[in-house]
Amino acid sequence: MSARRLGVAVAVLVSIVLATAGCVKSDDSTHEVFNDPHGTPGFSLPENPRVVALGWSDGGIALELGVAPEAIYDWMSIGADTKGVGEWDAAAFGDKTPQLIPSQSDGNFNMQQIEELRPDLILNVRAKTDDDINADLSKIAPVVTSPAGTNDYAINWQTQTEIIGAALGKHDEAEQLIGQTTDAQQTIREQHPEFAGKRFVYATKFGTAYGAYLPGDSRFDFFADLGFVVNPPILQLQSTGFAAQVPVERVGDLDAEAAIFSTINLPFSDLQNDPLINSLAVVRDKHAVLLPQKDPAIMALSAGTPASLKFAAQRITPQLAAAVPA
């Protein structure tokens, strides 16, 4: 190649690099990390923002606020049939189908995959509290997280809704959603005064051990809002933040006045035939409700969004009323 042609080729290459440089994000660029339920974020969003929802049920709450995410991390393996958000929310997507990011056993994210989704906003609220992960995400887009000091996955559903609402510019809509759900819970509490003050556990069997959800987690707080109180021995057990670990020798701590029992990644028959669970007075006296992991009410309670909790209330309240002594 002649020197002249080489010079032209180099000039063209340089011009291409300069033209595209503005499209390449610097590794040093960062965006705001927002975690204040009552604050105003320092970023602005386009009219129809591209939202990637990574936290547990963050996508469902965004959808309930009128913003359909581009992608959802499918923590509960809900699947494509209900678009990763469950039957209580799927219709709100209309004709749109989000990309589902399969849940990984280690809970890690593929940063390149997330960047390729070109998000305007990343929701990572009900999630593992990890500053390094959020710092990496902030190199892609503004990130919404739980308030400082929140244990892993232990944010309550009201605060989760408030934070996502604030980030999306939908504060009033978030307050309305919360109010509708708390009103429904208040109605149940008034209709069932026998729930008030009853010692309660919501427990699961998994592997060779058991667990019980704690106050601060939506799965327990739902029942607390109906009037139930935590069975005191549960608070003395080792905590993972949102649940107490119940070793075999402490299964008796699950013997409350009322209970919900389910499974995690085990056949329902393993729970039904469990001799330790069946030895508890709360089970023998039929004051417990046993439900499989994929029961719609259990799935809705695990989702813990305003709409899913109302959905769960409609299905589980009659069973509780039949089980709880007056």
Secondary structure elements and pairings:
Blueprint: H1 3-20, E1 33-34, E2 51-53, H2 58-64, E3 71-74, E4 99-102, H3 111-116, E5 121-124, H4 131-137, E6 143-145, H5 157-167, H6 171-191, E7 199-206, E8 209-213, H7 218-224, E9 229-230, E10 243-246, E11 258-263, H8 268-272, H9 275-279, H10 281-284, E12 288-290, H11 296-303, H12 306-323
Helix pairs in contact: 5-6, 6-12, 11-12
Main location: other
Subcellular location: Cell envelope
Pfam families: Peripla_BP_2
Description:
The chain is of the alpha/beta class. It has helices spanning 3-20, 58-64, 111-116, 131-137, 157-167, 171-191, 218-224, 268-272, 275-279, 281-284, 296-303, 306-323, and strands at residues 33-34, 51-53, 71-74, 99-102, 121-124, 143-145, 199-206, 209-213, 229-230, 243-246, 258-263, 288-290. A 6-stranded parallel sheet has the order 1-6-5-2-3-4, with helices on both faces. Strands 7, 8, 9, 10, 11 and 12 form a 6-stranded mixed sheet that branches. Helix 5 (157-167) packs antiparallel against helix 6 (171-191), helix 6 runs parallel beside helix 12 and helix 11 (296-303) packs across helix 12. The longest helix has 21 residues, at 171-191. It is globular. The model is unreliable at 1-27 (pLDDT under 50).
Descriptive labels:
12 helices; six-stranded mixed beta sheet; alpha/beta; six-stranded parallel beta sheet; 326 residues; globular
